[in-house]
Amino acid sequence: MRVRVPKPNRTFLEIDQLVALLDAARQLEQKPRLNKRAKLTQQQAEQIRTRLANGETQYALCSEYGLSTPAMSLLAQGKTYNGQGRRIGWRAFCAVLGYAGPRISEALDLREQDVRLHDPNGSRLWIADSKTETGIRHVEITPALRTELLDYRAEKARRGYPTSPDTPFFCIAKGTRWDEDNVRQNMFAPVVELASRSLTESGLPPSDRIPA
């Protein structure tokens, strides 16, 4: 006996929402990232430089901010916070979610060999899916998504990221898969927030329908 169940509330993006999402991801991706060892925000780094310029000692500021003497010295010289730690893959990851429609966990499970950008039968993603009989579903990708992924893969190669077939497609420099909780909290949430703000400032509805 079949029991009727309510249909799930499917979410989707309008084209302007997707464009705003990708633009926000690129903007945050290119934002300088601070040295993790210093444990400072960019605003704090600027405050320290200003106070040093006004005559305060490095020793006093080390105690106040919990920094080591070498870290403070590098900061004073502008060497630690020079914007060289640019993030990688944020826009490509959001493009996969927006164009191909996998869940965040499914996108993070993609391996290099699953991203078939030169498949003679058409570019596609091989996504692990326990709901199918074979455990894999093939998702054909658009030319726009293919371009995003080619750019990301080329950037990984320039930076020396591992690219063996079993390496996670979205990985850190050591080849380790991105952490899902970290992606949701520290990447995706800020991107959605910035995209929504951009849409609102343009007189459009915010991206409150972007799935997480």
What attributes does this structure have?
mainly alpha, 212 residues
Question: What can you see in these coordinates?
Answer:
The chain contains eight helices and three strands. It is mostly helical and 212 residues long. The relative contact order is 0.15.
| Radius of gyration, CA atoms, in whole angstroms | 21 Å
Largest sheet: 3 strands, antiparallel
Order of helices and strands: HHHHHHEEEHH
Strand percentage lies at: 5-15%
Low-confidence stretches: none
Query: How many β-strand runs?
Result: 3
Structural class by sheet pairing and helices: mainly alpha
The termini sit apart by 34 Å
Secondary-structure topology with pairs:
Blueprint: H1 15-29, H2 42-53, H3 58-65, H4 69-76, H5 90-100, H6 104-108, E1 115-116, E2 124-128, E3 136-140, H7 143-158, H8 180-201
Antiparallel strand pairs: 1-2, 2-3
Helix pairs in contact: 1-5, 1-8, 3-4, 5-7
